[in-house]
């Protein structure tokens, strides 16, 4: 059996590793377009902040470590076509075309940076000081630009996870950063009341944050890159030495669409929860495919954690297994300077759109007993269904010491199991005064929802 | 309706608060034997370390705050008898006897320090430098002793949670501490391989740790208090200026036994999961009663977190509710200097005794991506049933920065829901490089169990 995985990032590598783990007799080949398989793309901002050096340490595993598991790697190799009848791929490497045959194929080609209809992005690039950030190639281009041109000012278009992490990184690097956000508040996957806490943390560290700014175009002028935007009907302009565009991603679907695999939510390739594409012997996983969500059904939510899980399922099933992707609940976390924001499940408006009857309660609770030194407050927004009390979502923002990231995991696990908000109080969670309270903060926030809503 | 709660600690106060929260028309009286209702007994070691000052801040709520919720407090009042026919209590305060009538009664009289058959404990007390530690009265006695006699050496008999926390506290206070433990390793609710990490942390901070020491008696001599013990059949003696005996607790059951409520596991009062004693209108909760455990059924496991939950159930049901205590899973955590040890569920031998077919796998995983500064290793022992893969328990030890306490909560929530070890990989847990990994450490430990056992 020859399993081929296309894509050297989370989904492809996870599929390859899982297949080799379960059956070391399976031949596995990973074909990757770039030279950097299994790099932690989520770690790139920490390379720019210089907390991570050298860049090679960003690899989850080195190419040698991957090969030691028994898989073959074909790097800097592009797959241009799939022939599902003959079970062959057309590949190109170094200008030479070739065929690769497979018994089972896992496609994990991921996504590409979105451009949000911003004009100028098609002509301006790294040489002009205009960057996107998605691959190690993008990383090297930006680093070279920082190194050679020594820009003093930067504009970051977008204030999602990567945008915020890069605002921190470039600030730490000594650049004066202006962050532009289309919506009314940074971190638009959180309610604005909590995004405002992150906003304040950015400002406290010297980042200029401009919200409600819809960017139309980029122009290169002698003073730098000019960002032309619209705010409340008026044109506004921002100028900086470099501009970083981090406004999300768009799934790469061309390879599978060409053989008839349809696209669904978010324009992503449709797969079933076993990662089957519908084309015999062809599986797909990762940022290029739809996400099965335990509350929303089929949606698109590209995340590394999901890609790992989907890839593992695809790798298992491709060699004859019966795994199923159990479904995302939308858990995400970001650290911005000393603040951590974490969320899982649905917010009010998302839940209402999905047919729930959501109510959201804001509350705050100490991360540990107030009498013990270092206690800080975690701000919560808990969302539940007012009809049946079902827990639908939770958002938490607190200081880094407050274990916010692992507290959201308790909510995520509860949502996975369809708990009610009230049932959160039944969980036997850990307590010691330096680290918690007899009712953990997540339970106090749940009880606040009960008091406020039920 | 007049609800009376006996006991001013977690169970009694939680019952009173819950009743007042649900129905502000209910008259609630709390009768407490000492003068300090609603104190955080778990915080006492941090008073001794001087991290918590003054002692008043150890109160979860002050007496005034409790009274502001509309409950009446009768402090320094002993209940000597219950008359379930007439629904009255005999109480004594300041040498005067009195009757108190009730419509519903919640008994939360807790537990008392165990003495483990150590002779001398009946005659030696605080004036001799021999202390137990369970109440604010014990706290003041020890503090007075530390203050007035300025002891330089201390022996702590017992190396459970409180014993370890007190070893840290007295070390921080400048005393030379010797810790005596009957079993082969400290922290006997953990497997010795993990207890050894805590042991090392104690030694690194100057604590002398002696294991395998069975204490027989205490004698006061001119050199100090002599602890006479047996180790491997030989008598051993340890001498110090003060001795602290923290070897667990025994449930207080006299009041309810006198009216015919039976005792069960651990000698604790038997209640059903609604906290009903079987005597009409009499409920009981907290460290005096049995614990319903989701894996073990009825057991005895006195803990503040459980007492809060049981008290809440009792308070709700006493005024006509239909709450049920959902059951403990045995979650506990302790911080010892810079190490945190957390556990939930069952260990191998406990699980085997309960009829499971347990297998335990040891592994370790980084708390966050190794490339980001500050990563540390968490040591895991995951226990599952080899027949059906059911998750039975988890033990974690790591540095304080590793969010061990809230990671055990993910296992606790999973055990609550009868997950298999394999299903842990399906959980959508949070990830950002400074705080986790694409597969969280708890998932990597679960995958290690799968690889090793299944």
From TrEMBL, chains A, B:
Enzyme class: oxidoreductase
EC annotation from Swiss-Prot or TrEMBL: 1.8.1.14
Start and end residues of each FAD/NAD(P)-binding domain: 2-311
Residue ranges crossing the lipid bilayer per the database entry: none
Keyword RNA-binding: no
Domain Pyridine nucleotide-disulphide oxidoreductase dimerisation: residue ranges: 333-436
Molecular function via GO: CoA-disulfide reductase (NADPH) activity
Superkingdom in the source lineage: Bacteria
InterPro entries for the chain: FAD-bd_OxRdtase (IPR050260), FAD/NAD-bd_sf (IPR036188), FAD/NAD-binding_dom (IPR023753), FAD/NAD-linked_Rdtase_dimer_sf (IPR016156), Pyr_nucl-diS_OxRdtase_dimer (IPR004099)
Pfam family, one: Pyr_redox_2
Family according to the record: Belongs to the class-III pyridine nucleotide-disulfide oxidoreductase family.
Name under which the protein is recorded: CoA-disulfide reductase
Organism listed in the record: Microbacterium ginsengisoli
